[in-house]
Amino acid sequence: MPDVTPQIDELVRWLAANAAVLLLAVGIGFIVIRLGRGIIHRALERTLTRSALKRGLPTPLAEAEAAKRAKTLEGLLYSLLRLSVITVLILVVLAVLDLLSIIAALGLVGAAIAFAGQDIIRDYLNGTLIVLENQYAEGDIVRVGGVAGTVEELGLRRTELRDLSGVVHIIPNGEIRVASNLTRIYAGINLDVSVAYGTDTDEAMAVIDAIGQGIAADEAWADRILEAPTALRVDALGDSGVDIKVVGQVRAGDQWAATGELRRRILKAFAAEGIEIPFPHRVVISRTEGDDAAISEGTVAEAAGGQAAPGSSPEAVDAVDAEDPA
Question: Which of 92, 205, 228, 321 has the fewest CB atoms lying closer than 10 Å?
Fold first, then answer.
């Protein structure tokens, strides 16, 4: 059996000479990782809140915006911190083992990987810009890559969205050319309300204004409404009625609930005030051979006044298509 005593003695001497350095490096790395997350959290929270307040945002909005962005940046910076610490530890071990000569070879391998993975590099570069420019953060509702949903995870390589149906969409950041953030600080109410021709538009707009003031004064909505919804103008003359533009301002993310509540109250108030919301009508004219003129006149009269002309065909009908109001 070969004598391994010299090799064991050499290993013991090497450990005695280098164990302190290795243990010290590992200990420092562990402490940095443990303390780093808390330091990152506090620094981000203070810095981002102060930055939001400098932009003139109210304190509640500034704190909400800072908390949302801090949550995203905290995870990314913590991951970068761990990666940096692990890289330094690997370099320390290589230096202790006197294996730094392999770093050059690792550099060549890295260059080959970079050349082969250009799409991945593009994903990471675009993801870095998304985070640094604060295009969106975790918890935002965004439209990117042709899909819309809530950002559940934002990484440097990919963005993960969940839509209203619960479907999760994973989009590589390199594929994102336009990012639409629907929940940045505040949102707007942009609603078109149609009233029938012949309606007093001043009266209809006054009713809408009263509804907007009522929502803003409601305790359930007061902290969510930033500017009460108001009737801005007569926006269009449509085929079936007159469109009135209604605008307002709410906290980010509340625009859909607030618009739905506004519609509900408008329907109720218009019914009480006798204001008609129009819907499209379609007249179907049925003619029989040899009596076209009489049937046509009778059907038109029926459509206009509700009375069928004598001798009109049983197939002459009025058809009314009821659609959702605009």
Answer: 321
